[in-house]
Write a structure and sequence with these properties.
Order of helices and strands: EEHEEEHEHHEHEHEHEEEEEEEHEHHE
Strand content: 25-35%
Radius of gyration: 20 Å
Largest sheet: 8 strands, mixed
Number of strands: 18
Distance between the termini: 45 Å
Length: 376
Amino acid sequence: METEPNDRATVRVIATPKTWIESEAVAQLERTAALPGMRLAVGLPDLHAGKGHPIGAAFLSQGVIHPRLVGNDIGCGMGLWVTDLPARKLKLDAWTKRLGDLDGPWDGDREAWLADHGAAPCPFDSALGTIGGGNHFAELQAVERVDDAAALAALGLDRKALVLLVHSGSRGLGESILQDYLDGDAAGLPEDGPAAADYLRRHDAALHWAEANRALIAHRFLGPLRAAGTRVLDVNHNTLTRHDGPGAPGWLHRKGATPATEGPVVIPGSRGDMSYLVEPVNAGPDSAWSLAHGAGRKWTRRDARGKLGKTRARDLTRTALGSRVICEDRALMFEEAPQAYKAVDSVVGALEAAGLVRVIAVLRPVITYKTRRGAP
DNA sequence: ATGTGC
């Protein structure tokens, strides 16, 4: 699907007839493509409607930047760790109990952790090492299927070892940065002005903080399991980066869009679905150098609560794939139910059909930690 | 998404 709503930006949606995409999401994509300076707008197969602007999309602009397109969770992304826990030693009940409380402040030396991970202290450091809400999680996974054994080995992964996937971001920091640019930026910030430089500097700091955050979440998750982990990859999907390669030079805004330019990435399904470890191929303007960042919502949070009225929160703690979900916030449990998300194979399938990924391996969820806090 | 909005 390709249109040019304002004779300026090219708009594309990467999907097959089987991909679930709401018309409102496409309408948001087209409206966003009409913003000043916009040259290219690409909806990935996980495209869904957001608050004004769609999620699962990448936008290339020239001359101006649009901080609101990156959203409040600047630096949100996926980190993957390989652990020394053999899959055959998995003890679902015991481990689910043994996992500590990741919601409270970490009792370690935050400043040292940040320094060791190339990040600077900020006013939101009490949240360092916490997962946050929404679709964020930390999930232990087993290797379900291997399609490319050589690529798996090259990443340092072993099919017999469990892995840990962490999805989180910059917590209150990104939000506080965005707030400073929401007033009067409808036209975007001129790329050579002081506001853009200021935003980009703070944006980069949030990226580093988010990366350090994911590393601490992994550390806190694995500690009680007496396991060690080695980071395999860590990729942000809410970013603004300068793009100077072939295709139009400009500013690439990613909102729930994973870079196709930084090596292998994980495209997670819902908490009751598989995740895909994939190798990006053919990165270019057709995909805005990006991939889907997950399955993408099928139902709004509000609809999910309504449609799952007969389901009990308790039933959602065990998934069809046999995994456990730790989520003691009842409302969040319904909002994040697997049924509320697109089937991940339809999303990855659309990327494969478009010639944008090669599957390395499929990962099966084992234990997902979302929160041990929240409304009963 | 958010040390979350009234």
